[in-house]
Amino acid sequence: MNAPASLIEDLLAIKQWSQRPAGQDTAEVDSINVLIGDGVNVLTAGIAGALRVDFRARITGSFIHEFDGLTGSIVLAIDKATYAIGSAPTFSSIVASAPPTMTSARYAADTTLTGWTTDIARGDVLRFSITSQANLKRVLLTLRIRRLEP
Questions:
Q1: What is the total count of domains within the chain?
Q2: Count of other CB atoms within 10 angstroms of residue 16
Q3: What is the pLDDT of residues 93-102, one digit of tens each?
Q4: What CATH number did the domain enclosing 98 receive?
């Protein structure tokens, strides 16, 4: 199945936002983007994705964006574990009592991150889960970060 041209254009634009300008040695602000859902099936609760971060960083904002034209609600959990070869990861929440949340909307932002564990170590694994949702088929979760190393 081929993705719609508008989705490909959106993803290319998002990728370009996270690339440093020519002539700049290190990116100061970057983003971790997690696209959740396929745009066809309604999202369900549970683990939606995971990724490994290969640089030290600090999270400075959380953004949820629905770009298929549906208004809805979603609450996401973000857990972190130290990556270790040969052992099962032990995940713990980094969002405390203020998880990324969008309520009856198409966009949500949180730059306060009250109670969050915002530091990410090189090699940490982030796991993203849907806690609850209503009416959504695809969302983009973006964590705005400040890289602490190139």
A1: 1
A2: 8
A3: 999 999 999 9
A4: 2.60.120
